[in-house]
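Propose amino acids for all 200 sites.
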């Protein structure tokens, strides 16, 4: 599989308003939900997905897309230094994943936003498309290897830039680079969109 990644800067027309909304949102109080339990940080209690975002994501994806239901699409996510990572390298349970970086320029300078990996034992850059084989490898290899650095080879890093969107196949192995800061205002802040292509 060839790695396919789209990077779009200045995604939101009013970035400061979106960041302010993220800072004012209510977040889980350390209670893990099925959507957030595998990954570091806290999700906003509700989705902030917008029509503006969906229209732009449709153009970027090259075909109509819809928010994948019930897995946290449109939610903000906050992580700070020291947050536990139950899983590090992972895939997402949808077709396309989008991440928008909501940190300030000063917080972003010199930092990496997202990393993409190859699984050394299998040589794969992404989970197989076949659902049976995917489930087997997730159970037997990918999930157990998630936090074992020796099992993964770094392929690509995307710098952390304010209002940058990255769009990629959700089956690609990826992870956040690091956590930083000590609260919502100073920590890593993103918005995630999980997308499904709309047929016909």
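Proposal:
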């Amino acid at each position: 599989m060839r790695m396919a990644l789209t990077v779009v800067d200045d995604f939101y027309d009013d970035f400061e308003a979106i960041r302010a909304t993220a800072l004012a949102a209510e977040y889980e109080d350390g209670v893990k939900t099925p959507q957030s339990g595998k990954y570091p940080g806290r999700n906003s209690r509700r989705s902030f997905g917008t029509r503006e975002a969906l229209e732009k994501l449709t153009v970027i994806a090259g075909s109509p897309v819809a928010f994948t239901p019930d897995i946290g699409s449109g939610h903000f996510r906050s992580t700070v230094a020291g947050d536990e990572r139950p899983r590090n390298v992972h895939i997402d349970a949808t077709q396309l994943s989008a991440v928008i970086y909501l940190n300030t320029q000063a917080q972003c300078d010199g930092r990496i936003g997202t990393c993409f990996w190859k699984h050394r034992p299998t040589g794969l850059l992404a989970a197989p498309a076949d659902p049976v084989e995917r489930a087997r490898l997730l159970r037997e290899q990918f999930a157990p290897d998630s936090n074992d650095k020796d099992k993964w080879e770094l392929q690509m890093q995307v710098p952390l830039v304010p209002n940058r969107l990255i769009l990629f196949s959700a089956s690609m192995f990826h992870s956040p680079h690091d956590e930083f800061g000590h609260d919502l205002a100073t920590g890593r802040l993103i918005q995630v969109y999980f997308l499904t292509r709309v047929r016909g």
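Residues 5-197 form a domain with the Jelly Rolls fold (CATH 2.60.120). The radius of gyration is 16 Å.
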